[in-house]
Write a structure and sequence with these properties.
It contains eight helices and 15 strands. The chain is of the alpha/beta class. It has three domains: about 1-100 and about 190-220, D-Maltodextrin-Binding Protein, domain 2 (3-Layer(aba) Sandwich); about 105-190, Periplasmic binding protein-like II (D-Maltodextrin-Binding Protein, domain 2); about 225-290, Alpha-Beta Plaits (2-Layer Sandwich), CATH 3.30.70. It starts with 10 loop residues before the first strand and ends in a 6-residue tail after the last strand. About 30% of the residues are buried. The structure holds adenosine monophosphate (AMP). Adenosine monophosphate binds near residues 102 and 174.
Length: about 300
Protein backbone atom coordinates (compact mmCIF):
# COMPACT_ATOMS: atom_id res chain seq x y z
CA UNK A 1 0.00 0.00 0.00
CA UNK A 2 1.23 3.54 -0.71
CA UNK A 3 0.62 6.32 1.80
CA UNK A 4 -1.01 8.87 -0.49
CA UNK A 5 0.13 11.87 1.59
CA UNK A 6 3.73 10.93 2.35
CA UNK A 7 4.22 8.99 -0.91
CA UNK A 8 6.03 6.25 1.00
CA UNK A 9 5.14 2.55 0.89
CA UNK A 10 3.26 1.36 3.97
CA UNK A 11 2.90 -2.25 4.99
CA UNK A 12 -0.58 -3.41 5.98
CA UNK A 13 -0.64 -6.33 8.39
CA UNK A 14 -3.78 -8.28 9.36
CA UNK A 15 -3.90 -9.58 12.93
CA UNK A 16 -6.53 -11.55 14.82
CA UNK A 17 -8.49 -9.08 16.95
CA UNK A 18 -9.29 -11.50 19.74
CA UNK A 19 -8.71 -15.19 20.22
CA UNK A 20 -5.88 -17.67 20.67
CA UNK A 21 -3.48 -15.90 18.30
CA UNK A 22 -4.00 -12.24 19.15
CA UNK A 23 -2.02 -12.13 22.41
CA UNK A 24 0.97 -14.01 20.94
CA UNK A 25 0.97 -11.84 17.81
CA UNK A 26 1.00 -8.60 19.82
CA UNK A 27 3.69 -9.95 22.18
CA UNK A 28 5.93 -10.89 19.24
CA UNK A 29 5.41 -7.52 17.53
CA UNK A 30 6.11 -5.61 20.73
CA UNK A 31 9.40 -7.46 21.12
CA UNK A 32 10.17 -6.12 17.62
CA UNK A 33 9.72 -2.50 18.80
CA UNK A 34 6.07 -1.98 17.89
CA UNK A 35 4.53 -0.88 21.21
CA UNK A 36 1.00 -2.02 20.28
CA UNK A 37 -1.75 -1.83 22.90
CA UNK A 38 -4.98 -2.38 20.95
CA UNK A 39 -8.20 -1.36 22.65
CA UNK A 40 -11.55 -3.09 22.19
CA UNK A 41 -12.73 -0.69 19.47
CA UNK A 42 -9.37 -0.35 17.69
CA UNK A 43 -9.64 -1.87 14.24
CA UNK A 44 -6.84 0.02 12.49
CA UNK A 45 -3.59 0.93 14.22
CA UNK A 46 -0.98 3.11 12.52
CA UNK A 47 2.59 2.58 13.63
CA UNK A 48 5.61 4.71 12.87
CA UNK A 49 7.81 1.64 13.19
CA UNK A 50 8.67 0.31 9.71
CA UNK A 51 5.79 2.34 8.17
CA UNK A 52 3.32 -0.34 9.20
CA UNK A 53 -0.46 -0.36 9.74
CA UNK A 54 -2.29 -3.12 11.56
CA UNK A 55 -5.82 -4.23 10.76
CA UNK A 56 -7.44 -6.04 13.70
CA UNK A 57 -9.93 -8.56 12.26
CA UNK A 58 -11.38 -12.07 12.60
CA UNK A 59 -8.70 -14.65 11.82
CA UNK A 60 -10.80 -16.40 9.18
CA UNK A 61 -11.06 -13.13 7.24
CA UNK A 62 -7.26 -12.79 7.01
CA UNK A 63 -6.50 -15.17 4.08
CA UNK A 64 -9.22 -13.50 1.98
CA UNK A 65 -7.89 -10.01 2.83
CA UNK A 66 -4.42 -11.04 1.64
CA UNK A 67 -5.74 -12.80 -1.45
CA UNK A 68 -7.61 -9.67 -2.48
CA UNK A 69 -4.66 -7.45 -1.46
CA UNK A 70 -6.58 -5.53 1.20
CA UNK A 71 -3.59 -6.46 3.39
CA UNK A 72 -0.03 -7.40 2.45
CA UNK A 73 0.64 -9.96 5.17
CA UNK A 74 -1.03 -11.47 8.23
CA UNK A 75 -0.58 -13.83 11.16
CA UNK A 76 -2.86 -16.87 11.25
CA UNK A 77 -2.85 -20.43 12.55
CA UNK A 78 -1.43 -23.00 10.14
CA UNK A 79 -4.69 -24.93 10.68
CA UNK A 80 -6.61 -22.12 8.98
CA UNK A 81 -4.04 -21.85 6.18
CA UNK A 82 -4.29 -25.58 5.38
CA UNK A 83 -8.11 -25.52 5.59
CA UNK A 84 -8.25 -22.68 3.04
CA UNK A 85 -5.74 -24.41 0.75
CA UNK A 86 -7.61 -27.71 0.79
CA UNK A 87 -10.96 -26.03 0.20
CA UNK A 88 -9.53 -24.31 -2.89
CA UNK A 89 -9.90 -20.80 -1.46
CA UNK A 90 -7.24 -18.09 -1.52
CA UNK A 91 -4.67 -20.06 -3.49
CA UNK A 92 -2.51 -16.92 -3.77
CA UNK A 93 -1.74 -16.95 -0.05
CA UNK A 94 1.54 -18.56 1.01
CA UNK A 95 3.46 -19.14 4.24
CA UNK A 96 6.41 -16.73 4.61
CA UNK A 97 7.69 -18.11 7.92
CA UNK A 98 6.76 -20.08 11.01
CA UNK A 99 6.36 -18.11 14.22
CA UNK A 100 6.72 -20.81 16.92
CA UNK A 101 3.72 -19.90 19.07
CA UNK A 102 0.06 -21.00 19.34
CA UNK A 103 1.08 -24.63 18.95
CA UNK A 104 -1.87 -26.99 18.72
CA UNK A 105 -3.04 -30.04 16.82
CA UNK A 106 -6.19 -30.82 14.89
CA UNK A 107 -7.50 -34.12 16.18
CA UNK A 108 -10.46 -36.41 15.86
CA UNK A 109 -11.86 -37.14 19.32
CA UNK A 110 -14.56 -39.53 20.44
CA UNK A 111 -16.52 -40.19 23.60
CA UNK A 112 -14.75 -42.15 26.34
CA UNK A 113 -17.48 -44.83 26.34
CA UNK A 114 -15.26 -46.84 23.95
CA UNK A 115 -17.87 -47.39 21.20
CA UNK A 116 -15.44 -45.97 18.64
CA UNK A 117 -12.02 -47.55 19.13
CA UNK A 118 -10.30 -47.14 15.77
CA UNK A 119 -10.61 -44.74 12.86
CA UNK A 120 -12.29 -47.53 10.87
CA UNK A 121 -15.14 -47.39 13.43
CA UNK A 122 -15.89 -43.86 12.14
CA UNK A 123 -17.46 -45.40 9.02
CA UNK A 124 -21.10 -44.31 8.86
CA UNK A 125 -20.74 -41.98 11.85
CA UNK A 126 -21.17 -38.19 12.02
CA UNK A 127 -18.21 -35.93 12.88
CA UNK A 128 -18.61 -32.27 13.88
CA UNK A 129 -15.86 -29.83 12.90
CA UNK A 130 -14.88 -26.29 11.93
CA UNK A 131 -12.32 -27.79 9.51
CA UNK A 132 -14.39 -29.71 6.93
CA UNK A 133 -11.77 -29.62 4.13
CA UNK A 134 -8.95 -31.06 6.28
CA UNK A 135 -11.30 -33.68 7.72
CA UNK A 136 -12.69 -34.63 4.30
CA UNK A 137 -9.15 -35.02 2.96
CA UNK A 138 -8.15 -37.21 5.93
CA UNK A 139 -11.23 -39.42 5.67
CA UNK A 140 -10.73 -39.83 1.91
CA UNK A 141 -7.06 -40.79 2.34
CA UNK A 142 -8.03 -43.34 4.99
CA UNK A 143 -10.91 -44.73 2.98
CA UNK A 144 -13.52 -43.82 5.57
CA UNK A 145 -17.03 -42.76 4.71
CA UNK A 146 -18.45 -40.53 7.44
CA UNK A 147 -20.84 -37.57 7.56
CA UNK A 148 -19.38 -34.16 8.34
CA UNK A 149 -21.34 -31.39 10.03
CA UNK A 150 -19.79 -27.94 10.17
CA UNK A 151 -19.90 -25.95 13.42
CA UNK A 152 -18.16 -22.59 13.94
CA UNK A 153 -17.85 -22.87 17.71
CA UNK A 154 -18.44 -25.18 20.69
CA UNK A 155 -17.61 -28.22 18.51
CA UNK A 156 -16.76 -30.22 21.64
CA UNK A 157 -20.44 -30.15 22.67
CA UNK A 158 -21.66 -31.99 19.55
CA UNK A 159 -21.59 -35.55 21.00
CA UNK A 160 -23.16 -34.37 24.29
CA UNK A 161 -26.14 -32.81 22.49
CA UNK A 162 -26.49 -35.84 20.26
CA UNK A 163 -25.70 -34.36 16.85
CA UNK A 164 -22.42 -36.24 16.23
CA UNK A 165 -20.54 -39.28 17.52
CA UNK A 166 -17.11 -37.65 17.08
CA UNK A 167 -15.49 -34.22 16.74
CA UNK A 168 -12.52 -32.92 14.79
CA UNK A 169 -11.22 -29.92 16.70
CA UNK A 170 -8.08 -28.07 17.76
CA UNK A 171 -6.40 -29.39 20.89
CA UNK A 172 -3.80 -27.56 22.91
CA UNK A 173 -3.63 -28.79 26.51
CA UNK A 174 -6.41 -31.35 26.06
CA UNK A 175 -8.47 -29.81 28.90
CA UNK A 176 -11.52 -29.01 26.74
CA UNK A 177 -11.72 -32.59 25.44
CA UNK A 178 -11.35 -34.01 28.95
CA UNK A 179 -14.01 -31.71 30.38
CA UNK A 180 -16.43 -32.95 27.72
CA UNK A 181 -15.72 -36.65 28.15
CA UNK A 182 -13.78 -36.96 24.89
CA UNK A 183 -10.46 -38.66 24.01
CA UNK A 184 -8.21 -38.19 21.00
CA UNK A 185 -8.37 -40.90 18.36
CA UNK A 186 -6.15 -39.45 15.62
CA UNK A 187 -4.04 -36.35 14.99
CA UNK A 188 -4.68 -34.87 11.53
CA UNK A 189 -2.39 -31.87 11.66
CA UNK A 190 0.19 -30.20 13.92
CA UNK A 191 -0.14 -26.43 13.79
CA UNK A 192 1.46 -23.17 14.93
CA UNK A 193 1.15 -19.49 14.09
CA UNK A 194 2.49 -18.58 10.64
CA UNK A 195 3.24 -15.35 8.81
CA UNK A 196 1.39 -15.38 5.50
CA UNK A 197 1.48 -13.13 2.47
CA UNK A 198 0.47 -12.91 -1.18
CA UNK A 199 2.46 -15.10 -3.62
CA UNK A 200 3.08 -12.06 -5.78
CA UNK A 201 3.97 -9.52 -3.15
CA UNK A 202 4.19 -5.97 -4.49
CA UNK A 203 7.81 -4.84 -4.62
CA UNK A 204 7.19 -1.57 -2.72
CA UNK A 205 6.60 -3.41 0.59
CA UNK A 206 8.95 -6.37 0.06
CA UNK A 207 11.86 -4.80 1.94
CA UNK A 208 9.60 -3.95 4.93
CA UNK A 209 8.35 -7.56 5.04
CA UNK A 210 11.95 -8.85 4.94
CA UNK A 211 12.95 -6.53 7.80
CA UNK A 212 9.87 -7.47 9.86
CA UNK A 213 10.50 -11.19 9.40
CA UNK A 214 14.18 -10.73 10.27
CA UNK A 215 13.07 -9.16 13.56
CA UNK A 216 10.54 -11.96 14.16
CA UNK A 217 13.17 -14.65 13.59
CA UNK A 218 15.69 -12.89 15.86
CA UNK A 219 13.15 -12.84 18.70
CA UNK A 220 12.03 -16.44 18.03
CA UNK A 221 15.62 -17.70 18.02
CA UNK A 222 16.22 -16.19 21.45
CA UNK A 223 13.01 -17.69 22.91
CA UNK A 224 13.72 -20.12 25.76
CA UNK A 225 17.45 -19.45 25.46
CA UNK A 226 19.65 -18.33 28.33
CA UNK A 227 23.13 -16.89 28.36
CA UNK A 228 24.99 -18.92 30.98
CA UNK A 229 28.15 -17.77 32.74
CA UNK A 230 30.00 -19.96 35.24
CA UNK A 231 33.38 -20.62 36.81
CA UNK A 232 34.98 -24.03 36.51
CA UNK A 233 38.35 -25.75 36.92
CA UNK A 234 40.23 -25.98 33.63
CA UNK A 235 40.61 -29.73 34.14
CA UNK A 236 36.79 -30.14 34.18
CA UNK A 237 36.14 -28.30 30.90
CA UNK A 238 35.88 -31.57 28.96
CA UNK A 239 33.04 -32.77 31.26
CA UNK A 240 31.12 -29.55 30.75
CA UNK A 241 30.55 -30.31 27.07
CA UNK A 242 28.68 -33.51 27.98
CA UNK A 243 26.54 -31.81 30.61
CA UNK A 244 25.58 -28.45 29.09
CA UNK A 245 23.97 -28.69 25.64
CA UNK A 246 25.14 -25.90 23.33
CA UNK A 247 28.54 -25.92 24.97
CA UNK A 248 30.41 -27.17 21.88
CA UNK A 249 31.88 -23.74 21.19
CA UNK A 250 31.87 -21.83 24.49
CA UNK A 251 33.69 -18.56 25.12
CA UNK A 252 36.43 -19.28 27.69
CA UNK A 253 38.06 -16.47 29.64
CA UNK A 254 40.83 -16.37 32.27
CA UNK A 255 39.64 -15.86 35.86
CA UNK A 256 41.93 -13.30 37.43
CA UNK A 257 43.72 -14.62 40.52
CA UNK A 258 42.66 -18.25 39.90
CA UNK A 259 45.11 -19.82 37.43
CA UNK A 260 43.44 -23.26 37.63
CA UNK A 261 39.96 -21.93 36.83
CA UNK A 262 38.25 -20.32 33.82
CA UNK A 263 35.04 -18.41 33.13
CA UNK A 264 32.73 -20.09 30.60
CA UNK A 265 30.05 -18.18 28.63
CA UNK A 266 27.56 -20.27 26.65
CA UNK A 267 24.04 -20.05 25.20
CA UNK A 268 21.80 -22.87 26.41
CA UNK A 269 18.14 -23.92 26.23
CA UNK A 270 16.33 -22.70 29.33
CA UNK A 271 14.59 -26.00 30.06
CA UNK A 272 17.75 -28.03 29.50
CA UNK A 273 19.67 -25.71 31.81
CA UNK A 274 17.39 -26.43 34.78
CA UNK A 275 17.76 -30.16 34.19
CA UNK A 276 21.54 -29.91 34.20
CA UNK A 277 22.16 -27.60 37.15
CA UNK A 278 22.70 -30.50 39.60
CA UNK A 279 25.25 -32.08 37.28
CA UNK A 280 27.03 -28.75 36.86
CA UNK A 281 27.38 -28.45 40.62
CA UNK A 282 28.63 -32.04 40.82
CA UNK A 283 31.63 -31.16 38.62
CA UNK A 284 32.34 -28.10 40.75
CA UNK A 285 30.86 -25.29 38.62
CA UNK A 286 30.34 -22.13 40.70
CA UNK A 287 29.18 -18.49 40.36
CA UNK A 288 26.57 -19.68 37.85
CA UNK A 289 24.62 -16.84 36.21
CA UNK A 290 21.69 -17.31 33.84
CA UNK A 291 20.62 -14.28 31.79
CA UNK A 292 17.60 -13.96 29.48
CA UNK A 293 18.41 -13.25 25.84
CA UNK A 294 16.11 -10.80 24.02
CA UNK A 295 17.22 -11.30 20.41
CA UNK A 296 19.67 -13.57 18.58
CA UNK A 297 21.08 -12.75 15.14
CA UNK A 298 23.56 -14.73 13.04
P1 LIG B 1 -7.32 -26.94 25.18
O1 LIG B 1 -8.45 -27.10 26.17
O2 LIG B 1 -6.13 -26.24 25.78
O3 LIG B 1 -6.94 -28.26 24.54
O4 LIG B 1 -7.84 -25.97 24.05
C1 LIG B 1 -8.83 -26.40 23.20
C2 LIG B 1 -9.78 -25.29 22.83
O5 LIG B 1 -9.07 -24.12 22.47
C3 LIG B 1 -10.60 -25.67 21.64
O6 LIG B 1 -11.84 -25.04 21.73
C4 LIG B 1 -9.80 -25.15 20.47
O7 LIG B 1 -10.65 -24.85 19.39
C5 LIG B 1 -9.12 -23.93 21.05
N1 LIG B 1 -7.72 -23.79 20.63
C6 LIG B 1 -6.63 -24.36 21.23
N2 LIG B 1 -5.50 -24.00 20.63
C7 LIG B 1 -5.85 -23.18 19.63
C8 LIG B 1 -5.13 -22.45 18.62
N3 LIG B 1 -3.80 -22.51 18.52
N4 LIG B 1 -5.83 -21.69 17.75
C9 LIG B 1 -7.18 -21.60 17.85
N5 LIG B 1 -7.93 -22.26 18.76
C10 LIG B 1 -7.28 -23.04 19.63
Amino acid sequence: MIDKLAGEPRLRVALQKSGKLSEGSIELLNKCNFNLHPLKNHYLIHSRELNTDFLMVRDDDIPGFIDSRVCDIGIIGENLFVEYQLSGRNQNVEIISRLKFAHCRLSIAVTVDGLIKTIADLNGKTIATSYPAILKDYLYKNNISANIIVMHGSVELAPKIGIAQAVCDLVSTGTTLKENGLIELAVLLESEAVLVGHRECTSDVQSIIRELDFRFQSVIKAKNKKYIMLHIEKAKLGLLKDILPGCEAPTILELHGYPDKVVVHVVSEDTLFWNTITNLKKIGASSILSIAIEKMMD
